[in-house]
Each structure stands twice: as structure tokens, then as C-alpha cells.
Amino acid sequence: MTNSDFRYAHHPEDAKRYTTQDLRDHFLLPELFKKNEINLTYTMYDRYIAGGAFPVDQKVMLEPIDELKADFFLERRELGIINVGGSGKVTVDGKEYELGHKEALYVGRGNKEVSFEAVDGEQPYFYLNSAPAHKAYPTKKVTKNEAEIVHLGDDKYSNKRTINKLLVNSVIDTCQLQMGMTELAEGNIWNTMPPHTHSRRMEVYFYFDLEEGQTISHFMGQPHETRHIFMKNHQAIISPEWSIHAGAGTSSYTFIWGMAGENLDYSDMDKVAVNELK
């Protein structure tokens, strides 16, 4: 079963007046993984889709959702998958791809059947992102060893981290989708510091590897009008093009960033000094 909900885009002037619950209703994706289901959110920010596939004891199929008005899900789209659980299998038009923990798969436009299932009694959690595509590129698996690795931050500022660029144009061909994974070093809590915006792209953050009982405060909003949302493990949040996107946890964690929009330039960002935030 494939379920979906819908989120409109929001003007930053409107977002200034949102209550805590309004922010959560409009931007937070609170429950991505439900047993033997695929749960997706279709957002009007670059028509991006984010969600999760959670096969427990049966195969689950990626079905076209109403918002697409398509005969099959990838008729006009590309798909990125990162497994954040135990070993699992993705089958794309009859070809099988086994994904281990923190391995990724890019699925190009035009593939008609995509399914997900567990392997050898393990429990995979397939995190999914999708964007409109103008061209069909080959389906390809990407492991952490094949990713472009960048080390950033410093223990002094509690933001020492490793960025794994998995589904990006320096590693594979995509139309506009980009996905990667940032792992914080033990004892570090800040991600994406100093913060930035990028008006040419929107973004979705998905947090995982968070210890039981801990929390993450995700910061968003315009640099002069920031807001925060407290989040749990396995939750995601939509980041509009006008919004910063940064977070701090009560313990270390990992997060996946996914982007789509005007270009594929990872470094295309408008940086904000930390002492200029309001």
C-alpha cells in the first residue's frame, strides 16, 4: 500500500505568524515508517516527494499517487533511496538490488515497477526522495565507499562531521535530485553550522541514529526570523528555499539531506554568519 499527503508552499511572511503546532503541521513529516506500507508527502516546493517504505513481512510496491496523475510512479520522476536499517532488497523492473545499512540507490525516470522487501529476517528502513525528471538516467547503487567524502567542523565548535555525498552529480547522473548523508562525530551536536540558505533549491532533512530518549532541535526560518521544531528519531522536515536548515541534538546523530531545484551545484549557497542570526 502506498499512502500520501500533500503540503502547500508557504510565504515567509505567513510563516512568521505560525504557532508551534502550525509549523509542525506544515513542515514536519512525523511518521514515515508504518508496517508493510509506503508513506509519502508531496510538497509544492519544487514538487518534491519524501517518505519511507517499511516492508516487515511482505513485499511493498511503489504505486502512483493521486497527485502525480501518472500511470506509474516514475513516469515523469526520478527516485533516491537510502536504507537506514538492516539489509533489504529493492527490485526495479525485475532487477534486484540489495541495500545494506546506509547504502543508496538511484532509480531513473521510466522504470515502471519498484518494490521493497526485507532480506534474511533483517529490518530495512528505506528512506525515499523523488523529484520531477526531464531525462532517463541509469539506475545505480552507491555505497559509502563510492561516495564523495568531505570532513567539516571542529570539536571546539561541537560540529565535527563527515558528509557522504551519495546521489550527487559528482558521483552519478541525475536530473535535479541530490541526496547525501551527514554523520556527526561522537560528542558533537551541531549540523550545518554555520547555516545557509539557497534560493535556487529546496531541501528536506531526515534525522536518524538518535539515541532513545534524546531529541533534536531543528532550526528554520529566514536568518532574521528563525524558528525551531523539536524532532524525534526517523522524522523528516521540509526546508523551503527561503529558510535556513540547521540542527542541534541532545546527543550525536546522523541525517540525510535531499535537494531539488534550479541547479546541481552543491556549493551554491548563501552563507549566514552565526552571530547574525536572530
From TrEMBL:
Its EC number is 5.3.1.17. Its cofactor is Zn(2+). It catalyses: 5-dehydro-4-deoxy-D-glucuronate = 3-deoxy-D-glycero-2,5-hexodiulosonate. Binds 1 zinc ion per subunit. The keyword Zinc applies. InterPro entries: KduI, KduI/IolB_isomerase, KduI_N, RmlC-like_jellyroll, RmlC_Cupin_sf. Pfam families: KduI. Keywords: Isomerase, Metal-binding, Zinc. GO terms for molecular function: 4-deoxy-L-threo-5-hexosulose-uronate ketol-isomerase activity. It comes from the Bacteria. Gene3D superfamilies: Jelly Rolls (2.60.120.10), pectin degrading enzyme 5-keto 4- deoxyuronate isomerase, domain 1 (2.60.120.520). Pathway: Glycan metabolism; pectin degradation; 2-dehydro-3-deoxy-D-gluconate from pectin: step 4/5. Zn(2+) binds at residues 196, 198, 203, 245. It is an enzyme of class 5 (isomerase). HAMAP family: KduI (MF_00687). Belongs to the KduI family. Catalyzes the isomerization of 5-dehydro-4-deoxy-D-glucuronate to 3-deoxy-D-glycero-2,5-hexodiulosonate. This is 4-deoxy-L-threo-5-hexosulose-uronate ketol-isomerase. It comes from Salegentibacter maritimus. The gene is kduI.
